[in-house]
Amino acid sequence: MEKMLEVANEFFGLPMEEKMKLYSNDPSKTTRLSTSSNIQKEKIHNWRDYLRLHCYPLDKYTKEWPINPPSFKEIVSNYCSEIRQLGLRLQEAISESLGLDKDYINKSLGEQGQHMAINYYPPCPEPELTYGLPAHTDPNTLTILFQDMQVTGLQLLKDGKWLAVKPFPNAFVVNIGDQLQALSNSKYKSTWHRAVVNAHKARISVASFLCPSNAALIKAPKELIEDESQPIYRDYTYAEYYNKFWSRNLDQGHCLELFKNI
């Protein structure tokens, strides 16, 4: 975990001309450096740069990854492999907690994808005027976040109040994504969160995302539909949801509301 943060800091410390080799605003690119959130659509940009990587299967994507720092590919590959196993185990536990078979969720989601966003929040001269990221939920299944120990930046919404999540040594923050809310028929809720910036210190965070396959049909099982009524959300594919999510601004409300049964 420490090596992951170290190599992330090394990457963002590279000369600008080196980093810009990876820069792109095309969300379809599987390795890209970019800024803000959805720079082509948003009216107000966020105080963030990020390196976005597809991580599964590793042998398909690592050839696209940065060659500098020299240790980047090895360290990030090892980290991604361990995170994937953790995420799959968490989904097994969630499945059992819902009274479903242990492998129900993992089977329902197909050959799950895995992405990573290495986020860099530079010092901000006027932090009260901006966010690193505005309030949002994640469109995927699970997000496993590793925070910089030096600077608090993550906030979660609980009972109508924003609470700072202080970094804890050797620990992850696990956020439920929209797909688990839909699949669990809202027994689990996706996590509203945002990132704030600091006036004096830069901050790094590493967010790992487990995602259903594009063709996976997201639907609540009959065991979770009470009183034989219809499920809260209509059936849809993950590809349909993902395209809808990224066609909107990040702070445009809960995308899952668009998939409710009427």
UniProtKB/TrEMBL annotation:
Coiled coil start-end: none
Transmembrane segments: none
InterPro entries given in the database record: DIOX_N (IPR026992), IPNS-like_FE2OG_OXY (IPR044861), IPNS-like_sf (IPR027443), Oxoglu/Fe-dep_dioxygenase_dom (IPR005123), Plant_2OG-oxidoreductases (IPR050295)
Annotated PROSITE patterns: FE2OG_OXY
Domain Fe2OG dioxygenase: 112-212
Keyword field: Iron, Metal-binding, Oxidoreductase
Pfam families: 2OG-FeII_Oxy, DIOX_N
Source organism superkingdom: Eukaryota
Family according to the record: Belongs to the iron/ascorbate-dependent oxidoreductase family.
Protein name as catalogued: Fe2OG dioxygenase domain-containing protein
